[in-house]
Design goal:
Layout: E1 19-20, E2 26-27, E3 42-46, E4 52-56, E5 65-70, E6 74-77, E7 84-90, E8 101-102, E9 119-125, E10 132-136, E11 163-165, E12 169-171, E13 195-196, E14 200-201, E15 227-228, E16 253-255, E17 261-263, E18 281-283, E19 288-290, E20 323-324, E21 339-345
Length: 346
């Protein structure tokens, strides 16, 4: 039978009907168990040598976590209780290209979706960081302007800006703005996701320039972690074809390193309307919002065509649709601004 030893003075003269059985368990009703000392919110802590004391939760024995999503440039202040700080930086997404304006007897493609930027995560001991850290949020790249001159290719979108967290992280990949539409379909401006040391994750390219006479499709992110995709390519037409073509959806966002979820991108515009902006998605319980690529604009003969939708939270803008001569082509959507997530533990 197991033997339980109790030091002298550790128990009172009676146990008042409490039972110590051969499993070394004291069976008692916790609603009637009172331990003197301490104040509201304090917890018992041990020094590892059989000595117990009351401490304030979070002040030594407890655990705290603080999650912040920073969406505009500023200064971060380190909590006094911090022990470990994880910082994730996402650069700005790239703008989509605008569509070509051309004759109905010639092929005219929509613009490419803008490439998304990627992200970089580092984990620090709190002592490695200063008491305050200045940070910069990378701006999303502008979409290519609508074409207003006959027989003219579309304009390329601009690359997104770099996001930095003091001198500790400066992150921005060589992102590519969506190419302008031309007289032929273009290949996707695609950068496959690559994981590297210290949790580096790169973004993904946008969809190709509008496929002639068919609905364009978004570029999928693939299988790598932390996927933020680009926008979709704009709708276009082959020579002698004036069929109405709806825009495609922007790419979705998937998370794996911290989160496991995804959401659809913005829907493409129809009948010459603008593509919808990319939808944001919140991951409970941390409430961090990631973005999706903008949808592409649609083509309809004899009128100005649809613009690409804007990407959000680092995702790329959608491509603008091609147009017939005499009508403005669709402009590319803007890339989404970057952001920073700081997770402090103590």
């Amino acid at each position: 039978m197991p033997e339980t030893k109790v030091r002298s003075g550790q128990l009172g003269s009676t146990l008042s009907s409490k039972t110590i059985d051969n499993t070394n368990t004291i069976n008692t009703d916790l609603t009637k168990l009172a331990i003197a000392g301490g104040t509201n919110g304090q917890v018992l802590s041990t020094n590892g040598s059989s000595t117990l004391s009351w401490v304030t939760a979070g002040g030594g024995a407890g655990y705290q976590i603080q999650v912040e999503q920073l969406t505009s440039s500023g200064t971060w202040t380190k909590p006094a209780w911090a022990k470990k700080v994880s910082v994730l930086c996402v650069a700005g997404g790239c703008g989509g290209g605008s569509g070509r304006r051309g004759a109905t007897t010639a092929a005219r493609a929509g613009g490419s979706g803008g490439q998304s930027h990627g992200m970089h995560t580092m984990i620090f001991d709190a002592a490695q960081l200063g008491s305050t850290v200045s940070y910069v949020i990378g701006a999303g790249g502008a979409g290519g302007a609508s074409v207003t001159t006959n027989d003219t290719n579309g304009n390329a979108g601009s690359a997104g800006g770099t996001t930095s967290f003091g001198s500790y992280i400066k992150f921005g990949i060589a992102g590519i703005g969506g190419a302008g539409g031309s007289t032929s379909n273009g290949s996707a401006t695609f950068s496959s996701g690559v994981s590297g040391p210290l949790f580096s994750y790169f973004g993904f390219g946008g969809g190709s320039r509008g496929e002639t006479g068919t609905t364009p499709t978004p570029t999928n992110a693939g299988t790598n972690n932390w996927q933020i995709t680009g926008g979709c390519g704009g709708a276009g037409q082959a020579a002698n074809n004036t069929t109405t073509v709806n825009g495609g959806e922007g790419g979705s966002t998937d998370g794996y390193y911290f989160f496991q979820s995804s959401t659809a991108g913005g829907a493409g515009g129809t009948n010459g309307g603008n593509g919808s902006n990319g939808n944001s998605y919140t991951f409970p319980p941390l409430n961090i919002t990631l973005g999706t690529g903008g949808g592409s604009g649609s083509y309809k003969t004899g009128q100005a065509t649809g613009n690409g939708g804007n990407g959000v939270y680092g995702a790329g803008g959608g491509g603008g649709a091609a147009s017939d001569n005499g009508y403005n082509s669709g402009a590319g959507g803007n890339g989404g601004n970057g952001f920073i997530v700081v997770i402090t533990e103590g």
